[in-house]
Amino acid sequence: MKKNRITQKAIAKEFNVSIATVSKALSDSYEISIETKTKIRAYAEAHSYKSFIIDPRVELQKNTKTIGVIIPNMLNQFFTKVFVGIEKIATEKGYNLITCISNESLEKEAGAIELLKNSYLDGFILSIAEETQVRKDFSHFQNTINQGIPMMMIDRITDAIDCDKVVVNDKEGAYNATKHFINTGCRNIAIVSNIHRLSVGKLRLEGYKQALLEAKLPIDDALILKVDEFNDINTLLKIMLDSKKVDAILCLEEDAAVNTLKLVKSRGYRVPEDISIIGFTNGILPRYVSPSITTISQHSTYLGEIAAKMLINRIEQTDTPITYTTKVIKTNLIERESTKSIVEVF
């Protein structure tokens, strides 16, 4: 009878701990006690956990032509288009994809990495889950790299892990959107963020603030709406519109832009005559609502293509010295009906 390969999930169950704890113990994280690390590592070694044995890929001396992709949320139009780009290049290069969704969970993300590593794939493309970024727990990534598996981070990244990365210039995108508002005569500019805990949300907020400061406009915390499980977007918008003068709203995510447009119109405001709106991600919804929404395009399909090309090059060029690269994708503003044109103002 064939013996099942031991996994981090099985080790976690044995010691009644999380997969993340097992991953940290195996990567010798300082966050785990010496006693716990010793027990977990001894158990893993005794059961021939694969990080303690020769990687079968080394024995085969060839690629499996398989890439693992871990995405936080496939319902997000940005990640859907990123995956289209990854799949296009993978197909052209003869690679297969195995895809997992973390649903913004650290535990699911660590579990997905463990599952995919046991498939003996050649490398990972991933965007970090929200819980992982909030908790700053990246040990499962480091453990993977320590096992010699190439990793490509996209969009949501961390400087704590050395690997190849492809990111959008989020700060520039928000800066240009805010400047467009200012150039069309807007002075009371609000921002709606349901991604404020993520690295990309923080960068976009920085770009917004930079544009205001350069225009010598005040930064009013009452105009910075942070949407989360405790504060829904409709309630926050109603409070703001009832208490503050607002003539423009920058939404940091596609759904937030559509919801903002709907509520603003329901309150009797005209868009863009009374309030202008710009959103991020040039997906389908902003084009077909009325009025259509001006957006910041992040060129997500292209981002996916670049990420796949870089990872495959890393996989196939095994003899080259390891020098990690971060590729930055520029954004551009796509003007539609939800903003005034500069010609109209001047």
Automatic annotation (TrEMBL):
Gene3D superfamilies: 3.40.50.2300, lambda repressor-like DNA-binding domains. Pfam families: LacI, Peripla_BP_3. It comes from the Bacteria. GO terms for molecular function: DNA-binding transcription factor activity; transcription cis-regulatory region binding. The keyword NAD does not apply. Residues 6-50 form the HTH lacI-type domain. Keywords: DNA-binding, Transcription, Transcription regulation. InterPro entries: HTH_LacI, LacI/GalR-like_sensor, Lambda_DNA-bd_dom_sf, Peripla_BP_I. SMART domains: HTH_LACI. CDD domains: HTH_LacI (cd01392), PBP1_LacI_sugar_binding-like (cd06267). The keyword Oxidoreductase does not apply. PANTHER family: HTH-TYPE TRANSCRIPTIONAL REGULATOR GALS, LACI-RELATED TRANSCRIPTIONAL REPRESSOR. This is Transcriptional regulator, LacI family. It comes from Aquimarina spongiae.
